[in-house]
Amino acid sequence: MSVAWLNTGDNAWQLTAATIVGLQSVPGLVVLYAGIVKKKWAINSAFMAFYAFAAVLIAWVLWAYNMGFGNQWFPFLGHPGPIISMQNELTQALLPTSKTTANFPMATMVYFQFVFAAITLVLIAGGVLGRMNFKAWMLFVPLWLTFSYTVGAFSLWGGGFLSTMGVIDYSGGYVIHLSAGIAAFVAAAVVGPRLARDRENFQPNNVLLMLVGAGILWLGWNGFNGGDPYAASRDAGAAVLNTNITTAMSVLTWTAMDILYFKKPSVIGAVQGMITGLVGITPAAGVVDGFGAIAIGLATGIIPWFTMNILGKRLSFFRKVDDTLGVFHTHAVAGFLGGILTGVLATKAGCVAYGLSNPGGAIDGNWHQVWLQLIGAAFIIALNLVMTYVILKVISLVVPLRMDEETLLIGDDAVHGEEAYAFFGEGERQPVLGD
């Protein structure tokens, strides 16, 4: 039965956007992780992402969605509770604290916000691949979602105190990427490093598979940023175009940096540049113009490259922490950078189109927006430093955070009883050491 508030075009776009964001995780990051790690960790790495996607959804509909987008409980958190009754699912989408409505049902809103929450946990996994105990990961996913992600989401998107202040996070530069980058770095430090032999030699087992995942990630970002106006609107189109402009500029810039410094263009480096571009434009996508998108792409192709390839190799602070895929550089640094540049480059016209009252950023004379962006970043950083550390320490009282040395030596076969590729005999598994 048709209802007056339902816009079928908006609903169709929102469900499409949510689905392609979901594809970024499954199969996007699943196959990217499987390809970028050593062969012996392909299944474990892929399964960490696959598991997170499923576990987040169940926690999301039973209690976490309302903590991020429901009625206010604290200035930074909504009241927990289930959201899956038929009455809730069929009503018009409403974020009660911010009084935001959309012309599609709550079921669509819940699913759209779920895929954002899921990919955040999948990104955190990138920092601890190749050594985190899978059982510890199974506990970490719902706990971190509950006590960290929902706080950031409510504070910035659900009507909490940061959104009230006027901090801009268009599509998750802070809520998703800065959070994931800080949490991954803390987790990498607390869980401990990979085996020394793995850390010294961790060549990707399948670069082409990695590129398949990277391509899904890039194009899936059209739903990531294009879905956040909650409508098939002009702002959605601007956000999608800006997303691709920044990403392309970042890929080219990172590749140029590789050629200048390493004398060779690296496809793995280009993928890193793609990721930093996608992350950097995320907080700004619908509020900057094309020139702003190019500027962000230049910055995300240079600064995270420098922190990863120069500071990351020279500073003992970074060398001591085994962040497997450099999530701190690609997500925390790029997310922070994108958030601050949003304060600089946001335009009045973009803010108006997105429905914000913010009078643009520094480019339009509003330097106060830069200060607000710094406050938002500081809160997200502090939140994730504290909560990630506490959650991991609590989990360590129940199960070990790191696999034992023998399991680390063997990899997938010891953890899951499976191997990624059957390149021997008639497909039978290789014998486990000691058999």
Automatic annotation (TrEMBL):
GO cellular component, one term: plasma membrane
Alphabetically ordered keywords of this record: Ammonia transport, Membrane, Transmembrane, Transmembrane helix, Transport
Gene Ontology molecular functions: ammonium channel activity
Compartment annotation: Cell membrane; Membrane
Pfam families: Ammonium_transp
InterPro entries tied to this protein: Ammonium/urea_transptr, Ammonium_transpt, Ammonium_transpt_CS, NH4_transpt_AmtB-like_dom, RhesusRHD
Protein name: Ammonium transporter
Protein's organism: Acidithiobacillus caldus (strain SM-1)
Classification of source organism: Bacteria, Pseudomonadati, Pseudomonadota, Acidithiobacillia, Acidithiobacillales
